[in-house]
Design a protein that fits this description.
Layout lengths: L5 E7 L7 E7 L8 H6 L6 H7 L4 E2 L5 E2 L1 H4 L8 E4 L7 H6 L5 E5 L7 H7 L4 H11 L4 E4 L9 H8 L5 E3 L14
Parallel strand pairs: 5-6, 6-7, 7-8
Antiparallel strand pairs: 1-2, 2-5, 3-4
Helix pairs in contact: 6-7
Length: about 180
Amino acid sequence: CSEDEYIVEAIWADHVVPSLAYALVEKTRPGKFYPEKARALGVPEGPLWHKLQHGEEIKLPDGRIIKPMDVTGPPRPGRKIVYTGDTRPFKDLAKIAKKADLLICEATFGDELSERAEEDGHSTPVQAARIAKKAKVKRLVLTHISARYDEISALLEQAKKIFKNTLVAEDFMKINIPFSEE
């Protein structure tokens, strides 16, 4: 993980104490490499292919210049993960979460306790789902569920009524975020 590959954005959240929300944004990746195009242009396999795949133009022994765009598709978007931390819903959250691959959003209280959530600076599953829908994220993971809930399926259903692709976080959960081929 390096500055060349990722950007971390932070914005103030809306909680009773100072709190931040973060976006981890992977930079745009080179387009898909097409070996058949490289071969047709006479580019030998090996280090020259590697350079083209990583956005560098090359010079062939006969003097021709081959540019990455000659053998690759258009640049592909990187992945984006947004984590809210403790927060009430706030205006800029949908902005920072726009088109995220994954939004990890707190949902401390069920919707039956929405007034309590507001007072304590937290969100509900429905509020998290509305943010996910507005931001057009691909997947929502609810986290920071209050210990008062032994059974979380009702909270999950509250969110899924608005945003289908919702999960509830579990300890040590792993989520694969595939690359987009846009």
